[in-house]
Structure formats: structure tokens, C-alpha cells
From TrEMBL:
Gene name of the encoded protein: Xpnpep3
InterPro entries, A to Z: Aminopep_P_N (IPR007865), Creatin/AminoP/Spt16_N (IPR029149), Creatinase/aminopeptidase-like (IPR036005), Pept_M24 (IPR000994), X-Pro_dipept-like (IPR052433)
Primary residence: cytoplasm
Sequence similarity: Belongs to the peptidase M24B family.
Protein name: Xaa-Pro aminopeptidase 3
A Pfam family hit: Peptidase_M24
Protease is among the record's keywords: yes
Hydrolase listed as a keyword: yes
GO cellular component, one term: mitochondrion
EC number of this enzyme: 3.4.11.9
Length: 487
């Protein structure tokens, strides 16, 4: 899998012909309408047409590798956008694009299709990129806002050709041909309606031929696993603004305080600093509720003397952050809280030192379990750990993994195993925790009902790891100082 170092290769890409962006509003920000967000030539903030073209080029290179020895076949990749989802009658959720589709073209409208097609008589990775997009429709645009249309889609994204969505039906019959290999995620289509309208019959026909439809998402995930310098810059921005939001939320803590208030404060501070949305429903868990790993009700009162565990992140220009901090809402750690907190912090520091090329998330997980077992013994939470029971004890008090890949998704590239050797450009989370439920009769009483997790976002580099969440305080002194600073 040498492909993962693709970013080091020199590609000879044709210069993208300059197409004038229409001087009207499109279905997403453009350098013309939003010059404060996008520089000329950018499709999404910080990411240029050249970067998107390079991604498509690399995908076709991977397909070339996968199909060596199969001469005489044409290759076509089909990716569907997401649909608009509805919360209830007539009330749409905020639209979020399918991230594999978005990664390859940057187009932000629903009901669209991206096609990458090999060129007759030319070798891969040479290809043409086509978008099929919703047609301009003044009556719909009056209600839902402007659409980019075919001219806007081409000029903004830099693909070779664009057509209205309906025109996709003329392409489908050609794909049925025996000599045509189609790459398309038919097992989990991102748009059920487009799948049944255009792709389902094709998939069934191909299933009976020697050229079955092949899934493409694993190949896209292999590319998404390694971030480019521009992607890392986006993730640094997300990490910085989330860290600032944490500081302001710590400062706004008081005792007693509603979980809902801290949730609102955190979301406000993220969005006020330029985040688009929160990356996921945050966990704002006071007291013993911190022992429910995905507690998202966030509707209880946190009492004086209790800690809050806040696991939150935002999405900024298509990239996300995912940070966890735990602190006492009254601004002062009690002795047992401090003991447990310091133990988790030491484990987290040790795990961070392992984030370098060659190790893997699995290796770091093993280290975390070893260190947790050691700390449980030191704190007297577990009395006599036999060698073979150490991991079992650690897993009882920390039932989750040490981390996951991070990128456009919170749980990024989910098909990529955690056993992969880390490489420069990979981004991971490191999030050890120790959770002691209040009804745990084995643990000393002073620790019961306490849960601590500390999570940072980390870029693997050739040198020491780059911590994207470095601005977010985690030393006890720093946290106590922020909580008690005068407004």
C-alpha cells in the first residue's frame, strides 16, 4: 500500500482552464459572493480547484493499480451526494454533504452526482470529471435559495463538464456494457432516491456480468487517511477555535450550573468564532453521568463539588475537531478528583509520546490499558491485579479505545483498521479515561461517581506530534486559574 505516500509524488496535472464564476449567488459560497471566506481559485475555504483535481487524479491512480492486467475495460466512478433529510413535515435538517462526494469535488448541493470516467485510448489516471446537478428553477429558488446550475458548478469546482441531473439517464445505458467497469457504493448508497432512479437497475444488470460493480469507498478512505498541508491547516483552525470555546465555557462554569447552559455556551463560542456547526451532539455530563460514555441528554443540574465532562467539537470548512476536558464546576478540584484527574493526565501524556510514524492506534491502546491497570492499583481502586487480569481490569474502568482517525468526519475513515502503522499526515485522537460509577462497591468510596476523560487531536509528523488542541488547558493549575479568573 505504497499509495499512502501519494502526496509525496509529483503529478503532471493539466492547468485548470480559468472559467469565470457567474456574478450571482450560487448554491454555496464562492470567491465572488464570499471574498471574506474564499480566495480566487478556492472551492471550499483553504482548498483550491487544484487540490480537488489532485484528489481525483490520485483516486484514478489507485483504480489503475487495482485493475492492472484488465486491459480493454473503461473505468467509471459514480458518487452520489446526500439528499436533504427532514426532521418532520416540511422541516429540513441543515444539509450536510456526503463526505466522500465532497472530498472529490467540493460541491455542496443535494441531489447531485459526480462521475469520473477514463478517456478512450488514454491510460489512467487520465480521466474526465463530470457533475450532474439540480437544474436552475426560479420557482424553487424563490423558496430554497439559489442553485449553482451547470455553469456555476463548472466554474466553482473546476470539473471538466456539468449537466443537469436528468441528463444522467443518458449515461447509464453505456455503463451496462461488458467492457465497462463501474466503481460505486451500491451496498450503502448515500442517496436512496438517486440510487433507485438511476443505479439500482444498473447494479443488478452488472451483477450478472463478468464485470460486477466494485465499491469505491475504501479507496477514497485510503486517500482521506493522509491529510495534505492545506487540510492540516483547516484542522488547526478547528482545533484552535474549539480550544477557545472550552476556555470560555470553563470560565462560565459556576456551581450549581445547568448542563444545558454549558452546552449553549460551548456552541455559541464555537459558532461565534466561525465554526459552521458542532461536529456531533456534545456530551455535557455532570457528576456520575460522566460514566455514561455517550450521555447527550445534557438536561440535569450539576451540583457544587461535582465535575463536568465535556466532549465537544465543531466543524469548520468541512473539517472537524473532537476534544474532551473534565473540570470541577466550582473551579476547585477536591483531593479525590485531583488524584483521579492527575492519573488520567499522566496516562494521556504517555500515550501522546507514542504518536509517531510506525506505531499504530492498537499499539497506543495496549499502552493505555497497561498504564490504566497500573494507576488503578496505585489508587487502590483495584486491589490485587494478576498479570493476566490487568487488561480485564483496565477495560472495566475504561471500556473504549484510546482513539480514532479524525478528518472530515469525527470517526473518520471507519473502514481503515486501527492496526495500520501511523504515517505523517494521519490525524488521530488520544482519549484515555477512567470511569468509576457511583454504585461500584469495589472502588474506594471517595472515587465513586467520578469519571475523567482527557482528549486531544494529534497530527502525526516526521518529528514530534503536532497537537491541534494544544491551546485547550488540561493542567489542573491552568484549569483552576481559568475557572476563577475575574470577568
Amino acid at each position: 500500500s505504497g499509495c499512502m505516500s501519494c502526496s509525496q509524488r509529483r503529478y503532471s496535472l493539466q492547468p485548470i482552464p480559468e472559467r469565470r464564476i457567474p456574478n450571482r449567488y450560487l448554491g454555496q459560497p464562492s470567491p465572488f459572493t464570499h471574498p471574506h471566506l474564499l480566495r480566487p481559485g478556492e472551492v471550499t475555504p483553504g482548498l483550491s480547484q487544484v487540490e480537488y483535481a489532485l484528489r481525483r487524479h490520485k483516486l484514478m491512480s489507485l483504480i489503475q493499480k487495482e485493475t492492472q492486467g484488465q486491459s480493454g475495460t473503461d473505468q467509471t466512478v459514480v458518487l452520489l451526494s446526500n439528499p436533504t433529510y427532514y426532521m418532520s413535515n416540511d422541516i429540513p435538517y441543515t444539509f450536510h454533504q456526503d463526505n466522500n462526494f465532497l472530498y472529490l469535488c467540493g460541491f455542496q448541493e443535494p441531489d447531485s452526482i459526480l462521475v469520473l470516467q477514463s478517456l478512450p485510448g488514454k491510460q489512467l489516471p487520465a480521466h474526465k470529471a463530470m457533475l450532474f446537478v439540480p437544474r436552475r428553477d426560479p420557482s424553487r429558488e424563490l423558496w430554497d435559495g439559489p442553485r449553482s446550475g451547470t455553469d456555476g458548478a463548472i466554474a466553482l469546482t473546476g470539473v471538466d463538464e456539468a449537466y443537469t441531473l436528468e441528463e444522467f439517464q443518458h449515461l447509464v445505458p453505456k455503463l451496462k456494457d461488458e467492457t465497462h467497469m463501474v466503481w460505486y457504493d451500491w451496498m450503502r448508497p448515500s442517496h436512496a432516491q438517486l440510487h433507485s432512479d438511476y443505479m439500482q437497475h444498473l447494479t443488478e444488470v452488472k451483477a450478472r456480468s463478468k464485470n460486477k460493480v466494485r465499491a469505491v469507498q475504501q479507496l477514497v478512505q485510503r486517500l482521506r487517511l493522509i491529510k495534505s498541508p492545506a487540510e492540516i491547516e483547516r484542522m488547526q483552525i478547528a482545533g484552535k477555535l474549539t480550544s477557545q470555546a472550552f476556555i470560555e465555557t470553563m470560565f462560565a462554569s459556576k456551581a450549581p450550573v445547568e448542563e444545558g447552559f454549558l452546552y449553549a455556551k460551548f456552541e455559541f463560542e464555537c459558532r461565534a468564532r466561525g465554526a459552521d456547526i458542532l461536529a456531533y451532539p456534545p456530551v455535557v455530563a455532570g457528576g456520575n453521568r460522566s460514566n455514561t460514555l455517550h450521555y447527550v441528554k445534557n438536561n440535569q443540574l450539576i451540583k457544587d463539588g461535582e465535575m463536568v465532562l465535556l466532549d465537544g467539537g465543531c466543524e469548520s470548512s468541512c473539517y472537524v475537531s473532537d476534544i474532551t476536558r473534565t473540570w470541577p464546576v466550582n473551579g476547585r478540584f477536591t483531593a479525590p478528583q485531583a488524584e483521579l484527574y492527575e492519573a488520567v493526565l499522566e496516562i494521556q501524556r504517555d500515550c501522546l509520546t507514542l504518536c509517531s510514524p510506525g506505531t499504530s492506534l492498537e499499539n497506543i491502546y495496549s499502552l493505555m490499558l497497561t498504564l490504566i491497570a497500573q494507576k488503578l492499583k496505585e489508587l487502590g481502586i483495584v486491589k490485587n491485579i494478576k498479570e493476566n487480569n490487568a487488561f480485564k481490569a483496565a477495560r472495566k474502568y475504561c471500556p473504549h479505545h484510546v482513539g480514532h482517525y479524525l478528518g472530515m468526519d469525527v470517526h473518520d475513515t471507519p473502514d481503515m483498521p486501527r492496526s495500520l502503522p501511523l504515517q505523517p499526515g494521519m490525524v488521530i485522537t488520544v482519549e484515555p479515561g477512567i470511569y468509576i460509577p457511583e454504585d461500584d462497591r469495589d472502588a474506594p468510596e471517595k472515587f465513586r461517581g467520578l469519571g475523567v476523560r482527557i482528549e486531544d487531536d494529534v497530527v502525526v509528523t516526521q518529528d514530534s506530534p503536532l497537537i491541534l488542541s494544544a491551546d485547550c488547558p488540561k493542567e489542573m493549575n491552568d484549569i483552576e486559574q481559568i475557572c476563577s479568573r475575574a470577568s
